[in-house]
Amino acid sequence: MNNVSPLPFHLKGVTLSRGGKQVLKDITTSFAADPPKTVIIGPNGAGKSLLLQLCHGLIPADHGVIEWSNNHDRDALSKSQAMVFQRPVLFRRSVIANVILALKIAGFSKSERRDRANLALKKTGLNRHAATPARSLSFGEQQRLALARALAVEPRVLFLDEPTASLDPAAAHLVEGLIEEATTDGVKIIMTCHDLNQARRLADEIIFMHRGRIKERANADRFFASPQNDLAQAFIRGELLWWRRQSIFNDVRDDDDRVACGTRNNRGEC
Ligand SMILES: Nc1ncnc2c1ncn2[C@@H]1O[C@H](COP(=O)(O)OP(=O)(O)OP(=O)(O)O)[C@@H](O)[C@H]1O
Ligand SMILES: [Mg+2]
What angle do CA 169, 117, 86 make, to 5 degrees? Predict the structure, then answer.
C-alpha cells in the first residue's frame, strides 16, 4: 500500500455547475480514515456521482477547494486513491493487461505487476477471463474488472460509484465482501448506492444528498433508525419521488432546498 495517506481531506465551499445550473451547492465537509465506510445516498440527480468525480480529481470545482493531507500533489494522489465508475472505461486489451497497465501507471515495478494482477483477478472471480478482451466481458464482469484494477494498486481511498448496480446477487455479494476486505486492509471507502439494504449492510456512516446539497450526515445505525431531515425520512420511506416533491412538501419551493432542511449538524450541514 502507498504509505502516505492523503486523509483526511476537506471540501471547502465547493460548487459545480452543469448546463447552466448549480448541481453541487456550497459543499463543506471532510472525509477521514474513520469511519471506514461512508455511503452516499439520495435520489437520481442529487449530485452523488459528480461529488465522487470531483473528490477523485476528475473534474475541477467552479468555486471552493479540496484540500488533501500530507502535501499530496496531483501525482501522489493518482497513486493513493482510485475510483470505480458507474460505467467503467476499459482499455482495448485483455482483462489482465488492463490490470497490469493500471499497476504500471501507479508505479509498480514490472516484476511485481503480473503477480498482483493475477491476485486481483482471482479475488474478483475473473481469473478464468484473464486473456479475454476486456470489452467483450458482460457489463457486470466489466464492473468487477474495474474493481480488480482499482484494488490492485492498493489505494488508501477508494471511490465507488454504484459498484453493484448491474451485478447479479452472487456477484454483488462478492463485491460487498471485497469492500469489507479492503476496509480491513485500511482502505477508506466512499461509495454511492441506491440499494438501501446494501447501504444498511455496508455503511458505517451515511451522507444523504438532495439537489446538490448534503442534507444529513450521520452514523448509519442512527440514520436508519431516525433520520433527522424530512427529505431523508421521505427518501427511506420510498416517498421522495423527484417529480412529486412539491406535493410531498407543499411549503417548499423547488429552488430553495434549505427551507426543507430539518436539522443542522456540527459541521454546519443541514
Ligand atoms: N454534462 C452535464 N450537463 C448538464 N447537466 C449535467 C451534466 N452532468 C451532470 N448533470 C446534472 O447534474 C445533476 C447531478 O448528476 P449526478 O450524476 O451527480 O447525479 P446522481 O446523484 O449521481 O444521480 P443517479 O442516482 O441517477 O446516478 C443531474 O441533474 C444531472 O442531470
Ligand atoms: Mg450517479
Answer: 45
